[in-house]
């Protein structure tokens, strides 16, 4: 017998078993999948013969999943769910010119969105659906072609990563707030509200250390999940925020945010375009990737 097929039960038997597990019996399982109770019983008996172990205990006319059946179900049911999801994605797959890209929210709004007319001009056939994601995910379980990630290469194993650029975070605040709270030296920041982005609570201590100020016992102010929320709070006079300069260029140009100290903070983390290893076999993904690298350069 061909080895790959030797341990692959018939799908009809697996479907009957999965339905019986969910419904706790053969009758209701049969109603769901369009078989009689006896037909479901035969399918499961075929599966038990293959496994050489009972999966259900028969008690009179009732059945109950036993320990062996529970172990098998725990391993099998998630696999069947993945098959369903993969099949649904394949059936619903848009044309080869359609892409679904996951992006960090603020990056998508301030870096990607303003550049999209350039992408459309170059590749008018591409239709791109952007969705917000802030954390790495498994491409086999999520229907994305690529994603924008901030971090280091080891953060997201099993993917291809193209370096885009590093960021420089700068301290900013509202001009009226700064007039009311003069900041003469970096040490003055220890006495005012310091606003932070949720995933970068260490940014202010690192900035202060680089400025020669001990921030080890610093009491931070409010934190915000997204940088644009952080920028709005600072522009409203809530305090001083540390924000990547490329994300707040409109506020800086308009004067709604000002820079009290021209000391940027950078580190080894960077923005990357990430995608499954086989993704570039699709011309649309390769076109989007080339365009992203050009824009980042």
TrEMBL record:
Pfam families: HTH_1, LysR_substrate. InterPro entries: LysR-type_TF_proteobact-type, LysR_HTH_N, LysR_subst-bd, WH-like_DNA-bd_sf, WH_DNA-bd_sf. Gene3D superfamilies: Periplasmic binding protein-like II, Winged helix-like DNA-binding domain superfamily/Winged helix DNA-binding domain. The keyword Transcription regulation applies. Residues 9-66 form the HTH lysR-type domain. Keywords: DNA-binding, Transcription, Transcription regulation. Belongs to the LysR transcriptional regulatory family. PANTHER family: GLYCINE CLEAVAGE SYSTEM TRANSCRIPTIONAL ACTIVATOR, HTH-TYPE TRANSCRIPTIONAL REGULATOR. This is Transcriptional regulator GcvA. It comes from Sphingobium soli. The gene is gcvA.
